[in-house]
Specification:
The chain is of the alpha+beta class. It has helices at about 1-10, 40, and strands spanning about 20-25, 30. The protein has one domain (about 1-10, about 20-40).
């Protein structure tokens, strides 16, 4: 699972080292948190 999350982060995160969308939830797993950027809203 860790390898799949790492690959997903590389594809969707602007900075995979500091994820904003695929968040690790200690003791539970992972959470997908999509908060639109100002850049996304302008499109």
């Amino acid at each position: 699972i860790d390898a799949h999350v790492k690959n997903l982060r590389r594809k969707i995160e602007p900075d995979p080292a500091h994820p904003r969308h695929v968040i690790t939830v200690r003791g539970a797993g992972y959470k997908f948190d999509y908060t639109p950027d100002e850049e996304t809203d302008a499109r």
